[in-house]
Amino acid sequence: MHPARYDAPMRRRVLIAGLFHETHTFLTERTPWSAFAIRRGEEFFAARGDGSPLAGVLEIANERGWQVIPTIDARATPSGTVEDSAFEQFWSELRPAAESALRQGIGGIFLVLHGAMTTDTISDPEGELVRRLQALPGGSDVPIGGVLDLHGNISREFAEAAQAFVAYRKNPHTDACEAARDGARLLDRVMQSGRWPTTLHAAPGIVWPPTGVSTQDEPMRVLEELAREIERKHPDIAAVNVFASYSFADTLDTGVSFTAVTFGDPDEARLALQSLCDEAIRRREQGNVVPPSLESLLPTIQAEVARGETPVVVVEPSDNIGGGAPGDLTHVFRALAAHGIGNSAVIVNDPAAVAEMRSRPIGWRGSLTFGGRSDTRFDSPVTCEVELLSTSDGRFTLEDRHSHLASMCGVQIDMGPCAVVQHAGIRV
After folding, report:
1. What is the 8-class DSSP label of residue 76?
2. How many Å apart are CA 257 and CA 277, to the nearest integer?
3. Does residue 2 fall inside a structural domain?
4. Which terminal Cβ of the chain has fewer Cβ within 10 Å, N or C?
5. Do the beta carbons of residue 139 and residue 102 sit within 8 Å?
6. What domain count does the chain have?
């Protein structure tokens, strides 16, 4: 139980903010403030209905009659270590808004976070953010809740400082909006009841690669099922969160972890978390998925392409743009070209090559250098003869509002300028 500071009307006033970034610390690049898409104040409400976590909390805010205090929401696609100045810029905008709201009286704070952000000198920015909010005058009297990505690297300090966070339960993240709704309902429960839950944290000391943490497969499927079973058997435990972690971050908190938000006996929740740790340890090898090499797959790819009955999708997880990689490696293109596999396509992230192509007329033919620029330790640019097929502004609307991409950006996507070229039947 925590003493309620405000009367009923104040308990309907909720400050909302967001800071979302999955940080790949093994990249040489840094992520500046300019890389973040920013919403301020009333711009928050443009997210309504777009399938994002922010849309989810706004939906429950409307349902429960909250008076929303929108502050700042900053999000960037996964990339290299965030510059300290970016985090401080975010805080410099949030702090005065939070101080003003706390002076006037609020019932709670809802944060849309990732959980695997890292800056130059802060390994746990989400935890630092919660601590700074609680250090403001009146901040420790207000419950803090929100929503987190399943790939969070969650520190014990962050978990135990906050009151009402809920994580996505699916990977791919088709439930991000619903998880935000669950988090908002939980925060509303805390605000209206005046009862503050306790959050406990446990970690089994395991790191799994992204290829091993789909919730449709073992071990994550079983861990999520066990978490739901714990919630059913223990009514006082409001949420059990399973964090698969983000292994491309070199931090002290990188690794699988679990949290439990309980209104009851902490020892009961602690035992439940231990059961999850034990299960993860029993299944640790299941999560260590090692994909086959591209070279070993080439004969199969050639045969399937020659058959032409169905599309063949080659997933290269090490250069996953959605996981923070630069997306400019050329080895898949080189392999397709070397083996004469036409009627194929690859994606390469290269703004310089796009800029060059956008200065050319459609149908232009000539030599183009692209890819392999971001980190010469692993790749180098390729130069070949191409034909320019098309260009675009890179803006589109997602048809699936529950898609993984919508969990980060909503349904309105702006990739920036794009170009399509072709070499020996391979579209790039």
Report:
1. -
2. 8
3. no
4. N
5. yes
6. 2
